[in-house]
Amino acid sequence: MKSRTMLFVLMVGIFSLITISCSDDDNDGETLAPITGKWNISKVGTIVNGSEVLIDAPQNQEGCDKDFIQLKTDNTLEEGDYDSAIDPCALFTNQGIYSRSHNNLTRVVDGVTKTQDIVNLTLSELKLKDANGIIEVYIK
């Protein structure tokens, strides 16, 4: 009986050590919400005197759908820009690739690489900020 009690205590101790030592600090600060999907630009802005200042995205043409990025599961992307210069609400698209490394999103379109910090990612909002402090807020 004594050996069974010792075995039980030993098993509980080992289980406790395994449970305590296994944490998910591989994702420190990283959100687990999916980044894939179609994201419509909503706001843009920057940091002024330590405060975030956002305005409605001026690139969105009144009366047209919002400009967007679509991040696909195969790490390709499509950027959509609605422009009424030639035809009302004409859609112009560019294709590219993207990668996500922890809380960074890197996009490559037409040979131009753009890396941004993922400031916020939920099921309905994606907020990005580049090294110059330029902020873009996208919604689904």
From TrEMBL:
Transmembrane segments: none annotated. This is Lipocalin family protein. PROSITE patterns: PROKAR_LIPOPROTEIN (PS51257). It comes from the Bacteria. Residues 1-23 form the signal peptide. Residues 35-128 form the Lipocalin-like domain. Keywords: Signal.
